[in-house]
Amino acid sequence: MFRSPRPVSMLGRAPRPLLLGALAVAGLAVLPLAYLVIRALEADPGSLDLVLRPRTAVVAASTVGLALLVGAGTIALGVPLAWLTTRSDLPGRRAWAVLTVVPLAIPSYVTGFAFLATFGPRGALQGLLAPLGVERIPSFGGLFGATLVLVLVSYPDVVLATRAALARTDPAVEDAARLLGDRRSVVFRRITLPILAPAIAAGALLAVLYALSDFGAVSLLQFDSFSRAIYVQYRASFDRSLAAILSLMLVGMTFAVAWGESRVRSRASAFAGTARTSRRPPSTVPLGRWTWPAFAFCVAVVGLALVVPAGTIGWWLIRGIGQGEPVRVVVDAALNSFLAGGGAALTAVMLALPVALLVARYPSPVASFLETAAFTGYALPGIVIALAVVFLSTSAVPVLYQTLVLLVFAYAVRFMPQAIGTVRAAAVSVGPRVEEAGRTLGDGPVRAFVRLTLPLLRPALVAGGALVFLTTVKELPMALLLGPIGFDTLATEIWDAAAEGFYARAAGPAALLLVLSAATVAVLLRNEETTR
Amino acid sequence: MTIRQPPDYDRAVVPKQSRFPLRPAARATAVLLIALLAVACGSSPGTASQQPASEAPASASGSLTVYSGRSESLVGPLLERFETETGIDVEVNYAGTSELAATILEEGDASPADVFFGQDAGALGALAAEGRLAALPQATLDKVDERFRADDGSWVGISGRARVVAFDDRIHDAADMPDSIAAYTDPQWKGKIGWAPTNASFQSFVTAFRLLEGDDAAKAWLEGVQANEPKVYEGNDAVLNAIAAGEVEVGFINHYYLMVALAEQGDTFPVRNHFIGGEDPGALVNVASAGILSTAKNPAAAQAFVDYLLTQESQEYFANETHEYPLIEGVPANPELPALDEVSSPDIDLSDLSDLEGTLRLIQDAGVL
Fold first, then answer.
1. Do B263 and A323 touch (CB under 8 A)?
2. A363 touches chain B (CB under 8 A)
3. Residue A170 CB coordination number (10 Å)
4. Global confidence as pTM
């Protein structure tokens, strides 16, 4: 009953500034591709067999397997958590809303390390079980370990995207279905879930692509993924050409995944225009006898995703103090992280807006193509992007090389898909009708958009910015290679100490990173609630 | 119909963005952007203020840019001391050794770096092969033994890092550890070995193996160990922690990781080092090394810095703080370590360790990666 006539191509109706804006953004995003092609063409044909071998196909297959499992896992955790923290009477709902998102800011290598230290054959868990006669517990690693850790660091992608969608969905649609006699569970399955589907898919896409790009967790947990193969090429032979060929294959996988997601999503366009335009808050669903199982679910997820790594950091601190290490409070690095993350978040949201609006309002193959192009850098390992930017900026804009402006801009371009997904999903559900009404009442196109649509998009803009911020503050290779010389962030401080085994020295910056992220998430969620 | 008039873009898009509307957020945006610009302007690299490179190296001054593949935790205090003693303004870019080497290659002639200080000789060799390093003066090279510097004078070793077999001392006794790395192909070690085949130090060791005993022997050794189903880790430190955690019993790593762990976690840390000795490939001593870029903007200060790393004071710093081997005459190693002579590293030229691509191919052929 919602189905509208299928748009053949809306591209012709797109305002030219919007189209050109999206085109410019996509152009920026594919710049690393140009670098990779240049390097790949330099490859020595004699050494091509190092990358074009059956082993590469095996690694590619296992990488795809990992990515799919991570996608499924993040949906299984993220959707219930988003619903519980927005719509239910879960005890401590607002605290859970913050705690379930903070793990996004924990670098995957910290979580990976914490899991090995806790659940390794002779880790902390075995220590607790030792009095029961448990000598060692099964090894933790490989596909299972890598999947678990990657799900735990990236499920907040799904939570944030889904929360934003729930926040803007008009409860009147659900209420109408209930009035028509559907039970709550039926309403959720037939109405709420389909409305949420684009947001869920957008969040899961980010998690899947993150899994493709991740190096920290897969290397610690000894899982042979594609990004690890790329790192091996760089580290072992300094052969940038072979690494570029592998990177191009990874970009191919990225495009395939992004295209697949857009297929899933195209079915959901039927739900355009279900955004909340009234000021009425959605009704809170009493959990009843499900209260404590739901509570236990939150405890379990936050326990694994947040308490295990935070506890490990605390243990480093305590053990270091015991051995006489001073506690390091790196305020400068925290400020730098905040500056880089904040700048990247704002810039990314601005870059994402034209692409997201074009795809949502004027769907066409060209719009989808531009959106997919914007994902180019997202699944590439940080080292690849960093070297691409080194090459491009020293060749084209040497003035900007190793400045904060360049770093922030590079972050924004790389991480903007996080903002595109959430903003696009919001723009679809807001629909053009409110704005059209504004136009008929005499507003110009810009004014109507700013006054009517933008406020409705605001939760999504904030959520998208938050995702970019949290991802940026934990990012390492780009901060190391592209930042101004001497520009330390919390992530570089953690790396600097932990890489040499000085865990006590890594604990201070790691704890600060958690505090900074938790505070940011709390402020953002407060902001989200006051705009209701 | 779509992209015919590019000038439209400037006129139409810019005003739209500049009126970004979120009221409280707008103010925060403006503040943050201004702060960003301020910081960016204040901290852009100090290349503009530098003097032309042609100045005579009589007195080093001005500013110096160091790319350090050795972390700030390890060498930061030393670099600060250099800055205080010479008055030279030192800017340091800390990152991984191979990442920085790749960065210098990408930067090409535009590299802001004057000096590259890397964790192993292989990375310096790769830069020298691409013509990115200038020759060091003989006086600087002569401070260290011939074994620990480049034949063409493009880099010089600063501190020594010995390969060891780290073992779980709850299970093994130092006296019973094998005297050759070749022994670890024996099935008695099945499931008990940890290694880090992606690690640069490990790959340097395999390269040394190839030089000493030939490619076939090196490949046979890799396959032999692989048949013992070793656990793969990301780096030396991960191997060390895996031994402590009881995942494996022995691991092939560099000697100083244990010293850090003992200092941080106390003597109860259940791992010890076994130095193989006997000019075995497993006794390789690799060197953290430094080189001056051929594009250095301040070669005089760069020279002063490399020489400073080879003073008695700095070498004592490496002996005592990073637990590495000092390389100049007259500075003893950390008393907890066997002397460098006793380690009896195999007699190979570290410059020859730069054939990393061949080593990677061999490791891949052996099915290890």
1. yes
2. no
3. 18
4. 0.84
